[in-house]
Design goal:
The protein has about 110 residues and is mainly α. It has a single domain (about 20-100), classed as Orthogonal Bundle (Arc Repressor Mutant, subunit A), CATH 1.10.10. Helices cover about 55% and strands about 0% of the residues. It is globular and about 40 Å long. Keywords: Cytoplasm, Transferase. Belongs to the dsrC/tusE family. InterPro entries: DsrC-like_C (IPR042072), DsrC-like_dom_sf (IPR025526), DsrC-like_N (IPR043163), DsrC/TusE (IPR007453).
Length: about 110
């Protein structure tokens, strides 16, 4: 089963068009498409950004994202080295993509 089987619309950059289509299966499919094998560490960050977006109704820039993680999950996780280990191509962009959120305005 792939994203086409799930009948989801995604942008040319792979972001969900309708965030309401998101669930954990969709996240898994998006991860496969992006060559990311999801671990508990990935899920912790994905679920964090979903909560952040629900609470604040916007996406942070990369610096605010990292600081917010540090505040909630601790310094060991709220640093760019840790986040790049999980999402080497760009933590904020890929976390938002896998979380079914819009593309962050600060991402190219």
């Amino acid at each position: 089963m792939d994203l086409m089987d799930l009948d989801l619309e995604i942008t040319d950059q792979g972001f969900l068009i309708n965030p309401a289509d998101w669930n954990e299966d969709v996240a898994q499919r998006l991860a496969v498409l992006n060559n990311i094998e999801l671990s508990d560490d990935h899920w912790e960050i994905i679920l964090f950004i979903r909560r952040y977006y629900q609470q604040f109704k916007h996406l942070p820039n990369a610096r605010v994202f990292t600081k917010a993680i540090a505040k909630e999950l601790g310094e060991a996780k709220g640093n760019s080295r840790y986040l790049h280990k999980l999402f080497p191509e760009g933590p904020l962009k890929y976390v938002c993509k896998l979380a079914g959120l819009p593309k962050p305005p600060t991402c190219l």
